[in-house]
Design a protein that fits this description.
Blueprint (H helix, E strand, L loop, with lengths): L7 H88 L9 H20 L3 H22 L6 H13 L1 H9 L1 H21 L8 E3 L4 E3 L2 H4 L4 H19 L8 H18 L2 H8 L11
Antiparallel strand pairs: 1-2
Length: 294
């Protein structure tokens, strides 16, 4: 049985429906593509914004770091300057000890300890060059203060300062042990001071007694009544202490030059003192019963 033939007018609605469907799908696809494009633009804008924000943050952090570094360097430079100025002030005041008769031994000791503390601070702050430079200059200056600027014969306080320095300054000890000629000169300054004290006060040292049970020295009553007796006695004590402190630096030194310096100054000191009883107490095992200097 034959199928009826459809006319063109009867076929059109189906075709139109398919065309409309295709158009709608195309429009939907266009919308989706446009949506993706907008989303991509937003993502790019968001990414660029984020990058700009991060860059600004990094720049801010870098700027902050640079400012902090500048401030730190400025503080360190200021601290270094204060440190150096205080070191110079301590050195200057301490080296003026022999001229400033009002400066006390306790003040000199404070300056020495303060300078040592400043050196330690410089070393702690990794200012090794500053530390080494100032330490070397200071050490040599102290030795020269004792060697050239101190009057051991007329200045008991200056003899006391020398003994204090060699006891409190380890660098001074090392320097003198490495420069035996200068150590020899300082030892002989003590010998001359003892000789001067004896010559200016006839009989004072020769008649002095030492009482071992109480570790005390005694002078005759006639000398105690003289003006300035306390100063004379302190002068003797300072010379004694100073000589023992300096001779101790080479007491066990095996070097031939050190041995010559040690033996010669011990003999000279004993002869200048001219009191075997006291000399034995002062020199201990080094006592040699040297004849008095006449």
């Amino acid at each position: 049985m034959e199928q009826p033939n459809l006319s063109e007018s009867e076929q059109t609605p189906a075709s139109d429906m398919e065309s409309q469907k295709l158009v709608r799908e195309t429009q939907k696809l266009d919308l989706e593509i446009e949506g993706l494009r907008k989303k991509n633009r937003r993502d790019v804008i968001r990414l660029i914004t984020t990058m700009v924000t991060v860059a600004a943050l990094l720049f801010g952090l870098y700027k902050f770091y640079v400012e902090q570094q500048k401030e730190r360097f400025s503080r360190e430079a200021e601290q270094k300057l204060r440190l150096q100025n205080q070191m110079r002030a301590d050195i200057g005041e301490l080296l003026g000890f022999t001229k400033d008769k009002d400066q006390t031994i306790s003040r000199a000791l404070f300056l020495l300890e303060d300078f040592k503390a400043l050196l330690a601070l410089a070393q702690l702050n990794d200012e090794q060059r500053t530390f080494d430079s100032h330490r070397e200059t200071f050490t040599k200056s102290l030795v020269y203060l004792v060697l050239y600027d101190s009057d051991f014969e007329k200045g008991p306080r200056e003899v006391r300062l020398a003994a204090m320095l060699v006891e409190a300054c380890d660098d001074c000890k090392s320097y003198l042990m490495a420069h035996l000629d200068e150590l020899n000169q300082i030892l002989y300054k003590h010998v001359r001071a003892m000789r001067y004290l004896r010559d200016k006060n006839p009989g004072y040292l020769e008649d002095m007694k030492y009482y071992e049970p109480t570790n005390q020295y005694f002078v005759l009553a006639k000398y105690e009544k003289q003006d300035g007796e306390e100063r004379r006695f302190q002068h003797f004590i300072h010379i004694r202490n100073g000589f023992r402190a300096f001779i101790k630096l080479i007491a066990e030194d095996p070097r031939p030059d050190a041995g010559k310096i040690r033996s010669q100054n011990l003999r000279d000191f004993e002869a200048a003192l001219c009191n075997p009883e006291v000399a034995k107490q002062v020199l201990g095992n080094y006592f040699a019963n040297e004849p008095c200097e006449r």
